[in-house]
Amino acid sequence: MEFKISKGFFKELKKFIKGKNKKELEVLLNDMHHADIAEILEKLSFKSAIYLFKVLDSEKTAEILLELDEDLREKILNRLSPKEIAEELDELETNDAADIIAELSSLKKDQVISELQDEEHAKDIVDLLRYPENTAGGLMHKELVKVNENWNVFICIKQMRIQAENISRVHSIYVVDDEDMLLGRLSLKDLLTTSSKTPISEVYIKKLNSVIVDTEDVEVARIMQKYDLEAIPVTDEMGRLVGRITIDDIVDVIKDEATEDYQLAAGISQDVEADDSILELTKARLPWLVLALLGGFVSVKVLGLFGGAMTNHGNLFFFTPLIAAMAGNVGVQSSAIIVQGLANDTLSGSLFNRLIKEVSLSLLNGVILATILFLGSHFLLNVEIIIGIIVTIALISVIIIASLIGTFVPILLDKFGIDPALATGPFITTSNDICGILIYFTIARLILGF
Amino acid sequence: MEFKISKGFFKELKKFIKGKNKKELEVLLNDMHHADIAEILEKLSFKSAIYLFKVLDSEKTAEILLELDEDLREKILNRLSPKEIAEELDELETNDAADIIAELSSLKKDQVISELQDEEHAKDIVDLLRYPENTAGGLMHKELVKVNENWNVFICIKQMRIQAENISRVHSIYVVDDEDMLLGRLSLKDLLTTSSKTPISEVYIKKLNSVIVDTEDVEVARIMQKYDLEAIPVTDEMGRLVGRITIDDIVDVIKDEATEDYQLAAGISQDVEADDSILELTKARLPWLVLALLGGFVSVKVLGLFGGAMTNHGNLFFFTPLIAAMAGNVGVQSSAIIVQGLANDTLSGSLFNRLIKEVSLSLLNGVILATILFLGSHFLLNVEIIIGIIVTIALISVIIIASLIGTFVPILLDKFGIDPALATGPFITTSNDICGILIYFTIARLILGF
What we know:
The structure is a homodimer of 450-residue chains. In chain A, 66% of the residues lie in helices and 6% in strands. Chain A has 450 residues and is mostly helical. Chain A folds into three domains: 7-136, MgtE N-terminal fold; 145-252, Roll (CBS-domain); 278-448, Tetracycline Repressor, domain 2 (Orthogonal Bundle), CATH 1.10.357.20. In chain A, the strands form two sheets. In chain A, strands 1-2-3 form a three-stranded mixed beta sheet. In chain A, strands 4-5-6 form a three-stranded mixed beta sheet. In chain A, strand 5 and strand 6 (241-246) form a beta hairpin. The longest helix of chain A has 31 residues, at 385-415. The N and C termini of chain A lie far apart (72 Å). The interface between A and B is large, with 119 and 119 residues.
């Protein structure tokens, strides 16, 4: 039952925008989900999008703003006055409002804050602005339902009705003392199945996972996944309840984390999308390419060392790309498996056992691949037997060394507190290229004696 | 407030296991979260793990089973009788129970099902076994709260109390007619803030996202994320409510999807972990390596075509790994960005615009890198100016071609319904290696005329 933008719908929409038929536009879009309207805005020209945005009422546009692509949101916010932006923010939950404010210039930020109507809400938003984006404080919102341990179920439900008015999802009800110290939680289910005179102190669950404001976002994600939580309360350093993080915010953290590893493995150093500007894409891609190019210089130098072999054993040079590519591929495979193991915390056993395993694994792969290479060099490529023997030995050696580099570089980086995903992609391919070529020609020199 | 296994704790635990002190073990583990106990079991020897597992009561062990690594779960299930397994499953939600049954041999499966005590529960589990794993039917569970449109809020709350007993998380309350056709939902919040005599038909929300049993899991994930849903009802083809999917099941789908792309980009063809057996790891890694090796054969052949240049322009061959590596790196970057764009549905604009953009982008990168290469070849590598000019021109051409291949191969695969992530990793590096070398030597031949 997802909405799909049909051509007919789009044609009608454009007609209404052109004719400035506000009424018809309202009817057309009234029942539509804000995520769908955001999708429509992104498909329109900016002029049409801003017109449509201003036609819709602020309850809807606030949610739409959240769904929009960052670039389009920035453009639209630039066209709104501080007062108009404040009206949008008044409709949003605190953390969503804080996220949008954080995107504004510091001058506009202050103007917008001073225009916020609901004072409590404004205070909460300003509080949230203090926390770094990638911490529990940056993820949490202030909206939550909390009850005092001294109430009974009846008063509790009455209070909850008031508090719940402003909250889209209740999840758990947190229990605090008079000092706002977090004591435990009440589950909605328990509340539905308990008589109304029971005191809260008798029904609440004392065991409760919580995080502190400065816990890292990925750590919050890990804890929520491990304990299968849909919401987690956030306390300050003293244990006072200050906010709550819900699973939908964590889904983004999990996705971003996976995306980042993927991009690093592909040699892209910033969070970019296909539709970003050429300049942004270049900034994200060029650094790794420069690194790879400098690695390439080293490989030219290394090959130059063995240039003397060209007169009598020129065929050797035809195999350098093959050997380098295999080294790179094996290295990337090994490092990807380790990076995932580190990320999911599933690496067990000692380093020595891992060494034994990686060597056995690459010996197995190496022997199979080397057999194919030996047969291929003889029957398909028609090179001399001795060259076939050299590339075969070189391939096995290169595969073992490359897989060891691929395995231990990420482990080492992780030990030093550096993101091991940095070791995948261009870094590992380039260093393995060089090692591969060096090993190959060293073996050739030992056998052929040039 | 996450539990960390301390050395002291572990020592005590082992002592109790050795001494078979059941009482002390129960005290030690009684308050512990099942996810923590699962972690502990994975760190023990299998003998100790199975002893501990049998000491704990089945309410706890059922949840522990779910958290365990697949291998250890399989080993433990092998040691339990069908009756014992059925006791575990009676404690679990339907879809979790179905997932575990699906892992059993078909003989044991039937024995376990016949031992299930709660008949309703058993029927629901058997129903769920019919659905393929990667569909809405395979993800959903049968536990949900549903109310009839003809009830009022008072009856509704009474009924909900009964239904909620067996459900860990209520989320929404679904409204159905006498035929079980899904009509809409009641939010808990609305229920908390509505007077008890109001008829349900007046308060329920008619607009509701739902999916059909055979909707693909990634599609369910996309819809739930787009509309920011924490639960989505599942209907059969006729619109009757048959189950519900919650966000925690979707988190796994999102993670698996990201992992799969990452592994494909690294040339690993199956879902493997660092701790899998050598045979499994080889099966996942070898196919791509064989492909890369065959690609390597082609590169040897291509280089052979230009072997004549070796006598007078041997230096050219020193640059082949550099050119091949740059082609591979650029290709992987381009394809990764496109694969992500396709996955997140953020690719907009026509193919022609994308072509223009990709060419501009690679021209910009290419010119910068070529400048570095030209200067480097002269000052660092000391090759003749003419060789420097050739590699510089080749690098720009190779970068453009490689980025076009990297961009359009995934788009093409996607058009034919093939997973575009297949095009990243070894596939793109190998084909770009070959193209790069071919372009490089063709340019060299044109300029030097060998």
